[in-house]
User: Fold this.
Amino acid sequence: MTTSAEFRSTLVDQLTANGTLTDPGWQKAAATVPRELFVCEFFRVVPGSNPTSYEAVYRDSPGWLEVVYADQTLITQLDSSTRPSDTDGAPVTGSPSSSSTLPGLVLGMWHQLEVEAGQRVLEIGTGTGYSTALGAHRLGDENLVSIEVDPAVAERAATAIKAAGYAPTLVVGDGLAGHPDGAPYDRLMATCSVRYVPQPWLYQVRPGGKILVTLTGWSFAFGLALLTVTEPGAATGRFLPGYTSFMVARPHDRPPRQSLALLPGDERQSRIDPALIEDWTGGWVAQLAAPSAERLGAGGQQVLSDVATGSQARTMPNPDGGWTVTQRGPLRLWDRVEDAVQAWQAAGSPHQEGFGVTITDQGQRVWIGSEDGPGWNLPV
Ligand SMILES: C[S@@+](CC[C@H](N)C(=O)[O-])C[C@H]1O[C@@H](n2cnc3c(N)ncnc32)[C@H](O)[C@@H]1O
Assistant:
């Protein structure tokens, strides 16, 4: 039977071979920290379920350890309260609210953070504590502070981190406020996403320090950015290659939606193929243009519903080609999306790594190409 140490060794070999793990220090951390301590139980998606449903997987069930080391995200909580052992074995539905992020992503982010021995790090989103334990192994307990907003999640993480033999500073609270008592930090890494960079982070990370964070919105588009703090309250940086998404920080989540009634409005022909906003970066651009809108629908039938104003836009393919868009409300959502998508196309439709962000006391602006390129303000 394959042992936990053997599974870890295989995972390290895989992540080294695919270029994720290049630093011997992080290789050692990955080879040492037993992920199974952090995911004693988790949810597995029921194959083919619609709506997506989940069933509990418990420690020592057949194949459990193999899945633990399969480089997958393991969901550990639904709807901010339900854990696997709260279910009676029957499949459940819900929205994932805590997880152990896949090791390849966590270790990749520790690399991307460019953190050096002796530097102080603030992690936002302890979750199961696996990424925290990796950080504590590599950087030392005294250099790591990790914040988790959910007290029950934080308690389980604290138990697991202790069992693994680490003792970083663990804080229960809203990570968007940072942890001033531990500042200044050299690095900040968020494993939950945010709609904009919270101001306290820009003061608690020292000038020259770096922030690795996934920006998101209410249309479920994501972009991982590495920022350098240029002076207290200001930062600049670029988005990174790849396709990284994280569950949104709870205070930045959209308000619960009531049922959505599609109402009549002004009709015209769309200037763009609506399916463009299903593309990873196309959806990102659309979200930048309509940051408080939620996106539903698929292909040529897209629906945007603005949470802040109730404005709507919806597209429909015409029988003889093209698409009709119907808009209503104070915000002409589709006008904004079309302008943004066309600006992105005019710039050559780059992947997100062609974008950057600049933060000053005047606002937070995401741009294409360079600071004087086309851009959009985040909803600070
Ligand atoms: C993807 S999980 C973190 C994964 C974790 N780093 C790991 O390796 O297990 C995201 C976590 O962020 C937490 N979270 C959400 N909003 C937060 C906030 N405002 N402050 C701190 N933690 C938050 C969630 O409760 C959840 O546990």
Notes: Residues 98-101, 106, 124-125, 127-128, 130-131, 147-150, 153, 174-176, 191-192, 246-247, 249-251 surround S-adenosylmethionine (CB under 6 Å). Residues 103-251 form a domain with the Rossmann fold fold (CATH 3.40.50.150). Residues 97 and 164 are 24 Å apart (CA to CA). Residues 4-17 form the longest helix (14 residues).
